[in-house]
Amino acid sequence: MFERVLIANRGEIACRVIRTCRRLGIRTIAVYSEADADAQHVRLADEAFPIGGPRPADSYLRGDAILAVAKKAGAQAIHPGYGFLSENTDFARACSDAGIAFIGPRPESIEAMGSKAAAKALMETHGVPLVPGYHGDNQDGAFLAKQAAKTGFPLMIKAAAGGGGKGMRIVRKEAEFADALASAQREAQSSFGDARVILERYVEHPRHIEFQVFGDTQGHVIHLNERECSAQRRYQKVLEETPSPFLDEARRAAMGEAAVAAAKAVNYVGAGTVEFIVAPTGEFFFMEMNTRLQVEHPVTELTLGLDLVEWQLRVAAGEPLPLTQDQIRAHGHAIEVRLYAEDPEQNFLPGSGKLLRLRLPAPSEHVRLDGGVIEGDTVTIFYDPMIAKLIVFDADRPRALLRLREALAACEITGPKSNIAFLERLTRHPVVVEGHIDTGYLDRHLDEFLVGDVAPPDYVLFAAATAALLHDECAAMSATRGGSDPHSPWAQADAWRIGHEGRRLVALEHHGRRYEVEAYGHAGHYRMRHGDDRCEVSGARHDGEILSARFDGDALRLAVRADASRVLLHDVDGQRHHLARAAAYAWQSRDAAGGDKLVAPMPGRIVLVKAAAGDEVAEGQELLVMEAMKMELALKAPRAGTIESIGASQGDFVEADAVLVRFAE
């Protein structure tokens, strides 16, 4: 076994590899960019070395700099994690040439599967089912348009290199093909340095089911069962689970055999994933092979009781696979979701900023957390905005879903916006609960999973105000206990006033709107009013996590957390309500998005300008396309009108809130 391993990655996966190495007594070496000098993977590793600037191209994609550190630190092996250089043939070969083990497949295997077109041609010769389409080298736009017409619509344009949903577009009409092709090629070039694409017939309402495969240097290849990844948004996986609620034993066996055949076709060594598109009829087609560890590998680990990073290390050190196919025994059900710094209500716009509050559930036999940041860290603009992976496990799927809902309810992120409320709605939606979701469902019905700008019910406002009052009374009581005479009646922090019953105003903000609740009373007994609605609250108790009280005689038990700045409450349906506390007698409405200008929502690069000064545009018309945090963002007109000026050109890097377009009055 290796004694010193360098991790050529960052964030969550780097921390995850470090944990296994530490358990095995392996010394770890980290590398970091300027933006990651204080990152958790740097703090967890035994040694860490800088390798360049904040952009991936200046640091984590610099194979030469990483190899120089490996030689300097005496690393015997390099673990690439996922992303960055994990599927880079040249880097894997350079490691081998330097006498350093690459903890992954042989360079030839990466090369064979690195091109979707070449991989499909290879799979065809080994009898692995393929979706009809074009996988050739001719990338002329007119030729591709002819091939698209031959394949038929709807079809999928996919980047020939890379994965992760980048460079993928669904085209339903021939007239839309040229624009979709140009967009996919731009994104493919930006993400992978390769603009080539392939075309495939688009399977309507498909499921995405992948198989974990493992091979060793002795020629053994096995699969470790499937993962269902059909809950996706814009080809990005949102929820992953195993076992799949769709597969029966016969179909599982057939797909497992095809996955092993695909791996054997390239003499595969190490951890890999063979991904399939599965039609509603049960037909399955090879989609691609990821020659690395997947983000969602923990669900496989929990149901099999294995550590796949340990397997990677042992195989790379020349050891045989620890188990044979017949020894693989699964039990229970595991589900993973990814907590992201993004705003679902703003088309999942990636976020950045300091994590002012990061509360996650306590790890247990039912809950696992794989993260790369802690409270106080900053989510930067340069990398994927994932905060943590939340994985749950239980005896069966219904209980695992219940564990997931409980774990999500315990999460709280303050600073950049997060997708927690979106995930909570997802886990309660019938299409997920019943296991019927397909890869396009979220994009077709996204409004079913978004909270929207809806006013909270009155009972939620009364409950939030009750929690706020109890918090304030407790805080005031604590403050007075330190006085010179704690028995003085003036030290009592209740609502008693000379000559009248005490009136307090609790002001709460929700989606930029102000809500005022008048309250009379103290110590858990209040008469409240919000507008024309009134409520008698009695017997209220709050232990910091649970509020129990009677509202007009009806008892409720709600999950509530409150302090001087906010109230976080889950209503009776499990819906999350995050209400900011405001000053009782000072209010200024939040400025709207500014109808006379279009600003950059975050730092990024302008990749396309689709309008000019003097143009008459309609509300919602696309004016610019911006690339930020590995995504293309369409920036649209906030209103109809005449453009006065354009403040950026194609290729420009712009800062957040930079004015990109001004409208004439």
From TrEMBL:
Q: Which cofactor does it need?
A: biotin
Q: Which residues form the Biotin carboxylation domain?
A: 1-447
One Pfam family for this entry, by name?
A: BT_MCC_alpha
Decide whether keyword Electron transport is in the record. no
Q: Which organism is it from?
A: Dyella lutea
Q: Which segments constitute the ATP-grasp domain?
A: 120-317
Q: Where is the Lipoyl-binding domain?
A: 586-664
Enumerate the SUPFAM superfamilies for this protein.
Glutathione synthetase ATP-binding domain-like (SSF56059), PreATP-grasp domain (SSF52440), Rudiment single hybrid motif (SSF51246), Single hybrid motif (SSF51230)
- Keywords, alphabetical: ATP-binding, Biotin, Ligase, Nucleotide-binding
- What is the name of the protein in this document? ATP-grasp domain-containing protein
Q: Which SMART domains match?
A: Biotin_carb_C
Top-rank taxon: Bacteria
| InterPro entries, alphabetized | ATP-grasp (IPR011761), BC-like_N (IPR005481), Biotin_BS (IPR001882), Biotin_carboxylase_complex (IPR050856), Biotin_carboxylation_dom (IPR011764), Biotin_COase_C (IPR005482), Biotin_lipoyl (IPR000089), CPAse_ATP-bd (IPR005479)
